[in-house]
Write a structure and sequence with these properties.
This protein has 156 residues and is mainly alpha-helical. It has a domain of 109 residues. Helices cover 60% and strands 5% of the residues. The protein is built from seven helices and two strands, in the order αααββαααα. A two-stranded antiparallel ribbon has the order 1-2. Strand 1 and strand 2 form a beta hairpin. Helix 3 runs parallel beside helix 6. It is extended. The mean pLDDT is 81.
Amino acid sequence: MGWALFLSAMSQWRLRIWIMSDTPVTNTSVSKSTPAARTSSALAASSRFKTFAVTFAIASPVLYLVCVSLNLPLFTYHPAVNRIDVLWSPPRSGEGPAMYWYGWTLSVVVGGAIVSFVAAMLPERVTRKIPLYLVWVLPVFAVVLLAYSLREFWLR
């Protein structure tokens, strides 16, 4: 079983394609009786974890658009003087530009984790109604909106 799996992976690697499947690949050499194996498989199969992951994927692009549009970083980094300010702070004269992207990213991670944790605590009958197509539609829509909002930088 191990060599067949290895050879299949190597042929896919040479062709630069990966065949994705819903059937799980089991490793017969790893015992399911180890605590780490039970924990990882239980976490991946948990409906709460699935809800957390789906909600995080849906909330992140929305939160990123909000943070960028309203300029809501959790911190501002000034690379020229290696200083970090809490929340938003303007660039100071003679210190170079301020970087807000890191603060926006942390805002999205914290906000997405909070929203996802709350969603994971909801009953399963409610979370089953979350449309999964939003996981890919919202990021595409967010990229289009961000590109449009940055048009003045591209059209100069």
